[in-house]
Structures are given as structure tokens and as C-alpha cells.
């Protein structure tokens, strides 16, 4: 513990995932005063047709801000 | 918020996913009295060998009701 | 299956939860063409200090739209 | 109910998944005194670049104990 | 890893939770051929008005099989 | 999106939660190159008898490193 889970859109590079894991783990370790070794993190990546905001599938949106 | 997550068997068409996102978001918006724009929804799709009922993998079942 | 999970702010009435369960289950059943009896739904309710948007705890926000 | 979810590294054989579903469901049924038919179980499998311990992606580790 | 999550109705005794954690961890360890020390398990307990089957809140059911 | 979920032991102060939300959101925003306003984060807090490592409930452990 703690167990972190990040749901995000598919398509990130390995380098982005590397920085995401490192940065989020460091931040959690600092805030909670625990060793980074205690923290596990999983990324659940979804396709644009598996995600909806306001009832609209992301793949159907005309304007797609970076998320 | 709210954040909705639907775990379901893989294999739905884009049109089914479209109706699922729209219908579920509308229902949540109405029941809770909040704007649809506030609601995010994710579909986690699993294969038949990643799902079990009563200890039996779905892929090993002889009779498979629609789920 | 499907298994639905709704994460939302604590404080809803029993009647709102009743309508939420009924409406969301009906919508999922219609969209996916499966029996309602196949669908399970869980509500995970969180406090205002367990939720953050844009890095700010909900309890620290001055303006709180209904979510 | 209960709804069990197991997040694990991708790469297990169908036979391992079969034993996992059977064994975990039996154990839960015995401990809680409920019928196995009541229990659903889902496996969420992740790649080595979607998992991190101590802030390091699993794919970047030199030593990888079996997990 | 693996990370196990069990969503279940509130009300279990400490002894039941003890047996649940032990039995499920053993079964996962055996099936996947990994050390029990690698496995973390969390129980998310819900109230009867936070759970629905077939669109009906569990608290509203007349007949309630053990779950 | 992204949707972040942190499962952790109950008992943190409001200030720790404030720093956790802020730090983790900043780190995710930087790593993925997206606006912090896009990121939602939920903390699921569990009791010591709802968590197990290696099959042993945390409340039953004699030695309890900070987690």
C-alpha cells in the first residue's frame, strides 16, 4: 500500500509512462511520508470508444482537448 | 464526478457502446440531478478467459446466456 | 456481468440511489440487449476530502457545482 | 456479490487462469459461507510498461521476481 | 502484484475476513506459482443501499440470499 | 481523464490529503502534458482489517511499517 490506479487514454510513449510512474510515486511518498518501495501503480489504458464524457463517446467528439 | 466504470465482455459494436454511454449517463444525470457534462464513463472490456462465475471461466461454460 | 461501479460524492437520499440503480440498469440492459438480472451495480461514496479536481480537494473549493 | 477483481501481469496460461478462478472462488465461498454461484471474478491483465513498483516501470527492472 | 480487490456486503466478522484474506491469497499463490508475500488484497465493503442486482437496491429486496 | 484512484490506509490528516492531491495531480499533468483541470482523483481509505499482505490482515501484524 498505497495502491495507485490511473485510467487514461491509450497512446502514451514508454518515456511518458516512465515519468508518470516516477513523478506520481514520488509525490505520494512525500505527501504520506512513506517509502516509495511501498507504493504500487497500475495504468489502465482505454481506447477512444471505451471512454465517454457527458454521454458522448470520445471517438465521436469533433473537438478533442488533450486528456 | 460521478465516475462510472462498466466491466463487460468484449465484442460490443461501436453503436452499442454509443447507446450504452448515452443511456447510462442520462439515467445517472436524471437520478442525481446533475449535469451530464459532469459525468465520465469508462468501459473495461474483458475476454472470456478473464471472467469467471461460480469459479468457472466463461470460456469453459457449455451454456452461455447473453451477458 | 456486466459489473457497474459508480464513484460519487456521499450524501444522496435512498430515493436517489433507488432511481440511480433502476435507471442505469435499464439503460445498460437496453443498450447491450441483456437481461437486467445479469447486471450488478455498486455505489462507492466518497467524502469531500477524498475527492480532488485539478489537484484541489473538493472540500477546499469555494464554488461547488452539483456533482 | 461478492465481486472479485485481480490485477496481474499479462502472460498466464488458460490453465493457470482456470485454477486461479476455481481456487479463489472456493476460498471466498468457504470463508464467507456463501454459494460459489454468487461470486463473479474478473482478471485485469497489464503489460510490464503499465505497472510500477517504487516508481520504476516493471519493464525497466533488471531483477524481476515472479509476480 | 497481483493486487486483489473484493467488493462485498458489510457485516463480516474479523474472523471471516481473516479466513478470506488467508484462503484467497493461498489460492492465488498456488495457481500463479508466486510467493504469497507478493500479493496484496483489499476488501471494499458496501451497505445494502449501495448495492443493486437487476436494478433493485439490495435493501429493497424481500428475499435476500446470503451474499 | 485521466482518472486517478488511490487506495490507502485510513487515518491521514486533511493536510496530507491536500498535499497528496496536489502533488500527484501536478506529476500526472507534467508527465502526460495535459491540463491539471482534466484530472480527477479519488482516495479510497480502508481500515486495517480490510487490508492484507501475504494473506495476513494488517491489523494482525506485529510489525507495521508505515504504509
Automatic annotation (TrEMBL), chains A, B, C, D, E, F:
It holds the Pfam family Tautomerase. GO terms for molecular function: isomerase activity. Residues 2-56 form the 4-oxalocrotonate tautomerase-like domain. Coiled coil: none annotated. Transmembrane segments: none annotated. Its EC number is 5.3.2.-. InterPro entries: 4-OT-like_dom, Tautomerase/MIF_sf. The keyword Isomerase applies. The keyword Isomerase applies. Gene3D superfamilies: Macrophage Migration Inhibitory Factor. Keywords: Isomerase. It comes from the Bacteria. Belongs to the 4-oxalocrotonate tautomerase family. NCBIfam families: PRK02220.1 (NF002571). This is 4-oxalocrotonate tautomerase family enzyme. The gene is dmpI.
Amino acid at each position: 500500500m498505497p495502491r495507485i490506479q490511473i485510467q487514461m487514454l491509450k497512446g502514451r510513449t514508454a518515456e511518458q509512462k516512465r515519468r508518470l510512474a516516477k513523478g506520481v510515486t514520488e509525490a505520494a511518498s512525500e505527501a504520506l511520508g512513506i517509502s516509495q518501495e511501498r507504493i504500487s501503480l497500475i495504468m489502465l489504458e482505454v481506447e477512444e470508444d471505451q471512454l465517454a464524457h457527458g454521454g458522448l463517446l470520445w471517438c465521436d467528439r469533433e473537438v478533442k482537448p488533450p486528456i
